[in-house]
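Consider the following input, taken from an annotated entry for PTB domain-containing engulfment adapter protein 1 (Rhizophora mucronata).
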Amino acid sequence: MFFEARGTEMATLFPNSRMTTGRDEVYVAAVPLRATKGPAQLLTSAAFSLKLWDLQHFMVIIKPSSPTSHSQAVAFDFQPKDPENIYTALAVLSVRPVPGSVLVRKLTKIPKSRCWLVGASKVDAISVATEFNNSWHTDLRVGYHDCRNYTNGLVELLIGEKRVLDRLRRSTGDQTRE
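Applying the prediction step yields:
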């Protein structure tokens, strides 16, 4: 079963997370979907350029407030293990589960476009996100258990806001860094 928190406060799910004196900034970013080279890749690039919400990949970025972090941001996301494989693309289109992968990588800076500051975490966001990743079920099924569910779940855990992507979709862009 994938990570859910029905009837439970999200912040109490990970009692070992440390409280911080600062507040780690939490962002949501949209990037183009990855696809096989050729027409599929052209289609996903065009969809991203046209800002088609449902054809974007979402991730969470945390900018720690800790002075020991050297202000380096960390991106957390969930995607197919082999997003450029044609068989993965066919499985995704037929809404079949595919092996997924939770990715964590350091960023030198926060993206300037299609990246929204959604709040600040009162807990050690990196530790909480790491614990969240360890509990995340990695079978990906588009529309049911994908990058949107991952992003919504992690943001809810970090700042308490449910369904952040719905709010961002409706927003006028006041919080975008464009």
